[in-house]
Design a protein that fits this description.
alpha+beta; 95 residues; globular; Alpha-Beta Plaits; 4 strands
Length: 95
């Protein structure tokens, strides 16, 4: 199991229930592909450095998890099709 960190930026126009449902879906993908979530950090709503899809603000979350080496590719393929996500990035943490 490797340690990973996922940073995800959700659409700034989402309501609280839509935001929590989208985050639940993201964490569900992690657990579905054999991951174990260790921490979820809510950075809140922040101004984006540049507009993305005509949005100037987004909700930032950091999700730290342990997963097999092939899980990030599978998680990314599912995150790409989520309409609520503006940007995401998964990086492997150093041991």
């Amino acid at each position: 199991m490797n340690k990973y960190e996922l940073v995800v930026v959700f659409n700034g126009n989402l309501e609280d229930d839509e935001k929590s449902a989208a985050l639940e879906r993201v964490t569900g993908y992690i657990t579905r592909f054999g991951g174990n979530i260790t921490e979820v950090v809510d950075w809140g709503k922040k101004k984006l450095a540049y507009e993305i899809q005509k949005m100037s603000e987004g909700y930032y979350y950091i999700v730290r998890f342990d997963a097999p080496h092939d899980a990030p590719a599978q998680i990314e393929s599912n995150l790409r099709i989520m309409e609520q996500i503006l940007r995401f990035l998964i990086v492997k943490q150093e041991a």
